[in-house]
Prior knowledge:
Number of strands: 9
Order of helices and strands: HEHEHEEHEEHEHEE
Number of helices: 6
CATH topology: Rossmann fold
Structural class: alpha/beta
CATH architecture: 3-Layer(aba) Sandwich
Largest sheet: 7 strands, mixed
Strand order of the largest sheet: 3-2-1-4-5-9-8
Radius of gyration: 16 Å
Amino acid sequence: xxxxxxxxxxxxxxxxPVLQEVLPAVGTVLEVGSGTGQHAAFFAAHLPQLVWxxxxxxGNFPSIRAWAAEVGLANLRAPLKLDLLASAERWxxxxxxxxxxINTVHIVAWKGVENLFAGAGRVLAPGGVLVVYGAYRYxxxxxxxSNETFDQWLKARDPASGVRDFEAVNALAQQxxxxxxxxxxxxxxxxxxxxxxx
Length: 198
């Protein structure tokens, strides 16, 4: 039942310091698109002051539960269903101190990206933070060759997916009262980007 993602294993140690820096001191972190559950288990263990709430489609629940059972943490909640393509209004929680979404924005269709920002804007209180991680395209510079190849691979797999334009994503944030607070280069030509709810 327990699934393993090499990319999760590679990036978790790089993402953790960003989360330690930008997440609030206490409260619930809503993870959107928990996938295998590796990140949930790892981050909950290293951020014991926060309650970690994984979400995904039910097909991923067995793996998320298996990773959670392995670490046995009181601050790691059972997974909840969150379908980004359904609606920004149908989220399983009504409030969160932070929303974290890793390697999902380039996978889900654009409607799902819109729903991510609308939903985050709705559940975050002022001062709450939305953190995303992944590959992004910027109008001010050429896309890195590795991300160009990644983008082609994504679109061959699913034409609705692909490396997103940072400017379009940031516009969604602004529409939902989320103010850009940080944009950090990460290994493998990825970015950690975060916004604060105003």
